[in-house]
C-alpha cells in the first residue's frame, strides 16, 4: 500500500520499545518517500521524535500547531495540559535544567553540550 497519505491511529499503543522503534521507522521511511504521514497519538515523546510538525487539538479545535520545539516549549504546557496531554520528559528535564525548549532526548544532549562549551 503506497498511498500518498498514511494515517496512523494511536500506533504506539501496546507497543514495547522495539515496537515503537518499528513504528518510528515506518513513519521515517514513508516520509522519506515523500508521503504525508499523520498520526493521532497521546504519546508525546513519539510525536516529538517522529514528526516535524505537531498539531494539538481540543474540542475539535487546533490549539497548538508548530515544530516540536515550539509545541513542547514550556510556554505551551498549560495548553497541553488543558488538552489532557503532558509534555515529553525531555522537555520537562530541559526546562528544569534551564536549557530552553528540548522536546527530545537528543535535544537535551545537544543543549547540554552547548552549555558546557
Number of self-contained structural domains: 2
Helix fraction, binned, reads: 40-55%
Number of strands: 4
Derived from helix and strand composition plus strand pairing, the structural class reads: alpha+beta
Distance between the termini: 47 Å
Sheet with the most strands? 2 strands, parallel
Q: What's the mean pLDDT score?
A: 95
Described by the principal axes of the CA atoms, the overall outline is globular
Write the element-wise H/E pattern from the N-terminal end onward: EHEHEEHHHH
Radius of gyration: 15 Å
Estimate what percentage of residues fall within beta strands.
15-25%
> Which consecutive residue ranges, at least 5 long each, have pLDDT under 50?
none
Number of helices: 6
Q: Which strand order do you get reading across the main beta sheet?
A: 1-2
Task: Describe this protein's structure.
This protein has 117 residues and is of the alpha+beta class. The chain has 2 domains: 41 residues, no CATH class; 59 residues, no CATH class. It is 45% helix and 18% strand. It contains 6 helices and 4 strands; from the N terminus they run βαβαββαααα. Strands 1-2 form a two-stranded parallel ribbon. The longest helix is centred in the first third of the chain and has 16 residues. The mean pLDDT is 95.
Characteristics of this structure?
two-stranded antiparallel ribbon; 2 domains; 6 helices; alpha+beta; about 45% helix
Summarize the entry for a quick read.
The protein is an alpha+beta fold and 117 residues long. 45% of the residues lie in helices and 18% in strands.
Amino acid at each position: 500500500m503506497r498511498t500518498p497519505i498514511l494515517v496512523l491511529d494511536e500506533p504506539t499503543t501496546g507497543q514495547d520499545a522495539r515496537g515503537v522503534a518499528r513504528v518510528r521507522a515506518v513513519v521515517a521511511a514513508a516520509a522519506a518517500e515523500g508521503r504525508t504521514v499523520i498520526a493521532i497519538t497521546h504519546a508525546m515523546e513519539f510525536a516529538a521524535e517522529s514528526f516535524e510538525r505537531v498539531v494539538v487539538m481540543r474540542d475539535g479545535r487546533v490549539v497548538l500547531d508548530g515544530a516540536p520545539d515550539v509545541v513542547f516549549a514550556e510556554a505551551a504546557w498549560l495548553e497541553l495540559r488543558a488538552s489532557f496531554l503532558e509534555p515529553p520528559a525531555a522537555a520537562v528535564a530541559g526546562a528544569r535544567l534551564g536549557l530552553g525548549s528540548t522536546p527530545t532526548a537528543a535535544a537535551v544532549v545537544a543543549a547540554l553540550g552547548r552549555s558546557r562549551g
